[in-house]
């Protein structure tokens, strides 16, 4: 078994390039795999390794001034769900494309237990602060699922969503980082009672057993989908080819399209791994390999290497 961690810390870094270089060196030395982004606003990462590698990495990060309080979401996987190690500097560790968003002015944290209590007892509006292809396969009961493809589309969505300013707002994302920023924006725009799920869906799954969460959780590593509520594993999404319940994803086998879509094994066979008949006819279609298609998902997009990831990860390491 391997450990997979997800974490962030909005701790200002004076010299991101230097910090990044040292960080990369350390991660390489211990043999960590994953994706770590560093900017002057802090660090955002997801990584995997053996128990020992992960312990060493956590101790390293905790040993850096200002990072002593970094919180890790941790999960097990029977394989390393990253092809390599990427440690890079970025303008923002999670890209909202809005200047001067300080998470210190963010929404009130709700711990998982409190979140569940509020869900059961109070009146509120709940926002899923993730992309449409993520909320599609799993979300909290009653949550608004914005039809956006990138995190940086949320400011525009907020302007148009017509959420009453006097309503209690609950928001959540995978591990918490997107709410750290988006909650600042909502508060600055006039919503007064803004609350964010501390630690996101992944921590809630661990501590509250995923109660009131329907479906599964999309993650930005080769697993792509992880369970949230072990008592409720029924897919809530549908295969875009067959229309039957499914919660596995593939990238369209037409290399010009490469769209990420929900697809069952049956649907993949039917359309030869493509999202449409048009793509199936494309001269840029890579060969369909049914034997490997539904082994760990990565087989599908090994052809593309980092292409899919770079695209998806441009908004978040989570
Ligand atoms: Zn396609």
From TrEMBL:
Q: Where is the Rhodanese domain?
A: 120-213
Q: Which residues form a coiled coil?
A: none
Which key words are in the record?
A: Oxidoreductase, tRNA processing
Keyword set includes Isomerase: no
* EC numbers on record: 1.14.-.-
- Which Pfam families does the record associate with it? Rhodanese (PF00581), Rhodanese_C (PF12368), UPF0176_N (PF17773)
The cross-references to InterPro entries, in alphabetical order and at most eight, read: Rhodanese-like_dom, Rhodanese-like_dom_sf, Rhodanese_C, TrhO, TRHO_N
Superkingdom is: Bacteria
Reactions mediated catalytically: uridine(34) in tRNA + AH2 + O2 = 5-hydroxyuridine(34) in tRNA + A + H2O
Keyword tRNA processing set for record: yes
* EC category: oxidoreductase
Q: What does this protein do?
A: Catalyzes oxygen-dependent 5-hydroxyuridine (ho5U) modification at position 34 in tRNAs.
Query: Family assignment?
Result: Belongs to the TrhO family.
Name by which UniProt lists this protein: tRNA uridine(34) hydroxylase
State which gene encodes it.
trhO
């Amino acid at each position: 078994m391997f450990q997979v961690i997800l974490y962030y810390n909005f701790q200002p870094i004076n010299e991101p390039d230097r910090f990044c270089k040292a960080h990369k060196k350390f991660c390489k030395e211990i043999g960590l795999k994953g994706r770590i982004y560093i900017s002057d606003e802090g660090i955002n990462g997801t990584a995997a390794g053996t128990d020992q590698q992960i312990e060493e990495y956590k101790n390293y990060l905790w040993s850096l001034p200002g990072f002593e309080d970094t919180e890790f979401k941790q999960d097990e996987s029977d394989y390393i769900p990253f092809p390599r190690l990427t440690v890079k500097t970025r303008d923002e560790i999670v890209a909202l494309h809005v200047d001067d968003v300080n998470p210190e002015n963010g929404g009130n944290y709700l711990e998982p237990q409190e979140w569940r209590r509020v869900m059961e007892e109070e009146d509120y509006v709940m926002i899923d602060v993730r992309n449409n292809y993520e909320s599609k396969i799993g979300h909290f009961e009653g949550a608004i699922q914005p039809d956006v493809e990138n995190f940086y589309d949320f400011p525009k969505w907020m302007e148009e969503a017509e959420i009453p300013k006097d309503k209690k707002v609950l928001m959540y994302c995978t591990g918490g980082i997107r709410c750290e920023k988006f909650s600042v924006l909502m508060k600055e725009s006039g919503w007064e009672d803004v609350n964010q799920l501390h630690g996101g869906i992944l921590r809630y799954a661990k501590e509250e057993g995923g109660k009131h969460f329907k479906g599964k959780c999309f993650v930005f590593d080769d697993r792509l989908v992880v369970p949230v509520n072990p008592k409720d594993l029924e897919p809530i999404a549908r295969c875009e080819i067959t229309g039957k319940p499914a919660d596995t994803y593939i990238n369209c086998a037409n290399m010009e399209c490469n769209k990420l879509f929900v697809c069952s094994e049956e649907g993949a066979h039917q359309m030869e791994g493509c999202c449409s008949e048009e793509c199936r006819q494309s001269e840029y279609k890579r060969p369909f390999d049914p034997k490997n298609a539904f082994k760990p998902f990565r087989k599908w997009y090994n052809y593309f290497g980092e292409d899919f990831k770079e695209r998806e990860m441009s908004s978040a390491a989570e």
